Amino acid sequence: MSKKTSLFPLLLGAFLVSACSESELQTADIHTPEVQSEVAVENTVMTEQQALETEIALGSATKRLCSSVLVSGRTSEHVMAEELNNPALAAVTFSIDGDLVTSSQDGLTIQALYRPYIGCTLIKDKDAGTLRAEFDANRFAAPPASPDEHWPVGNQVELPTELEGVDLAAINLAVDIAFKDLEPDQNINTRAVIVIHKGRIIAEKYAAPFHADMPQLGWSMTKTVTGALTGMLVADGELNISAPAPVPEWQGDNDPRAEITLNNLLQMSSGLQFSEVYTAGSMSDVILMLYTIGDTGAFTANKPLAHPPGTNFYYSSGTTNIISRIQHDLFSDWHDYLNFPHQRLFQKLNMDSAVIEPDESGVYVGSSYMYATPRDWAKLGLLFLQKGEWAGEQILSPEWVEYSLTPATAPERGNYGNQIWLNAGAPGNPENRAVAALPASMYYLSGFEGQNVVVLPDQELIVVRMGVTTRGQRPIWNLTKAVLNAL
């Protein structure tokens, strides 16, 4: 087995299942003379497939190294030891030169560029100089420092030693357990846990070198932010969720995708063909989108329909990136677009750590690439718990919050709303719900590798867990049940 073949499954680990059949992989973009033997054709196909596999593997490693070091502030040694420690990386050369992270293996070089305030972007069709020139940091609304006040207004936290009606000892024990393997040799790798009750942090723990001021990747928790930003644009009169989604690729004559509404996109029922799978072995659409394409929104917008719009629930990061591109296209000035989530959401909540990263086309990767401290991620749960109100200001309309937390019609178990997960249960049968041991009123942000912000509104409780769990059960549900029992 060549290095290119072995690098892919080893490096990506928990990623990838095939997005297309073996025959599709072997015929895509391959040009060989008719006189070649079958063996020669097969070798040509495998070479091109191996090149794509290596591009994905290097892309995922390069992007993660760039963001982890230059956005989160971790050391490259820690990232290599924790996330990029596969033996296959012995054949890869990594370098960090100022704002540019480069990886090379077997003649293939992948780069990611860091830009202040907007993080790291994989370079695909442009070059580092072009990306640097496009962004003017002086035009970015740099976040003000959090006020010197208690969380959530500021960042001061004083953990209580006792609370009436709360078994703090049981909660702290549950927090400690969340950092321990649930299965033999699982390497659960929990990095942060926070428990908030009635708007106050009552328990908090980090695994060194992670700490309260270090931004962490939320993966698909970013989708809930994208949904909230859409609500602001709806309130501004810029978007209508009931209208056909304004996607240029769908405007041709008799294109059935023209019937897809923004509501369909928000509720993951667009009907577009897409594979969202993270199993080791081969390539799904979500992986191809994130690591081989410079325009993540266009990647999915060009997909055909697999189901009539509104009839089938299928969770798709590609769908969210179409929404991000729709938001982008409303702005005539790119820097105004870049500033939008910061001025309208993050700065209102004093989320001064928050960074959403754009793809090469300049569109925020609204499905996956937001970094924030666990305390700042928790503020999003608190915003929904407070029905969109923050410090006397209505950041999200109560109607948008209600819409977001109302089960979509396509999911059979009432487990999804507008870019956020629910626990409502099947219509007419709430006992048939995703997490039967927790209340039907629960809702939560959820991301790859075990990122969660869980909200139990009836108990005014929020539980945050972040880490890198690549196999076995996640600790969030046992943790949440234990905390709930301690109230």
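Next protein, fold it too.
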Amino acid sequence: VDPSSMPSTLPGYLLNLTAELMLDGETIDEEVAGTLGGELYETMGVWSPGYGWEQSVNHPVAGEYRAIGLDLQGVNSKELADLQVQLEQTKQIIEAGNSDELLGLSAQELVGDYLYSAIYSYLAMNGIQDKLQAEVSGIVTNRMPSYGLFSTSLQTYYFYGTPRDVEFSGLVIDVDRLSSQVVAKDNDGGSRLSFTKVSGARASAMEHIVPEQVLSTELAPAHGISAVRALALANEQGQKIWTITRNNLSEALAAIDVGADIESEISASVNAGKVATVHEQPVSFYGGNNVGYLILDPTTGAGAYKIAGGLNGGFVDADTASIWGFLGFAAGMIGAGLVAASSAGLVSTLLLFFAAAVAIILTLSFVLDYMAIEHRCSGLGGLVALAVGAAIVGLVASGFGAIFLMYLGLLAGAGASTAASSSSCQ
């Protein structure tokens, strides 16, 4: 997005964005991407004669900058050197502070090169380490076409299903395909299996190590999370680490609490013959709850090292909260109107009860979110007190005043949790 083209008088959710596909700083394709904060659909893949298409699907947010790195048969050392020179030139311009030169910097130079250097470094470092590991393990390995991305991450806040605000929530590395051809020199299947498992675990660890190295400064260290780090944190906390096969699937699913989507994925994968590794419950890591889990093929050792996370707490997401909040408020207003019109009866009582229940549950959810988030902002306690106080007073009040008080509490709770999770409070 060209910042100079943004109307300064319009809120972000009214900005129409264009998605640009760039190669070496040159735009090679562009499409309408919708409004800032909207969810997009992205498909990337590799085609081979033996397997056909192998694709990955992602859902980026309009407004994010995504740098895609390709590792076809190893990375190009000259490209890495050229990128380093470009980054150094940009750094010198920024440090010099010349306004004309600063205004001449493109988004590619300010953001794209920086993100691309991170994903390209990740691919290069894994390639080198695979070769070193192969030499001492009696393995011959060659990189197959692979790709990954390093991107900015935006958190979208919705108002009745429509994006109303976005905030920068961090940087994300996502390596959808890291593939190698692996053969043991003595044709020992056990050696090949061991190499693949070790290589995969290391590649997962590099997903938090490389961003930390790229982003950290002496005054502001960066903290990255990966599947293997989440498992290590869970182990340090005394959680049981489950290795799940068909033999213990039912027992494991009854013992873990990592979210319905993850548990469903684990169940389907294990029933298909895979082996899953997961800890018992989410681990807290710098303001977020994270789950790390592995789904591996026991024959080849290949598989997925996955991380899922979100803000602490949370009974409902923003979309669901908006929908229920609207329904609850509407029901309360109708119920209060029936009472005011002397038409009180079972219907109005049920509507008011429904409105009160929705308001209390959502207020409690937002307050618990606020309490669970590790934030550094002071002064938000007043919003929490207002949320709880208004909700309680609303329960004993009557008519339209009760509805407004209960939903004032809901808005105060939502405001507190949103502020606590914002980048300025982290």
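About the second fold: The two ends are 26 Å apart (CA to CA).
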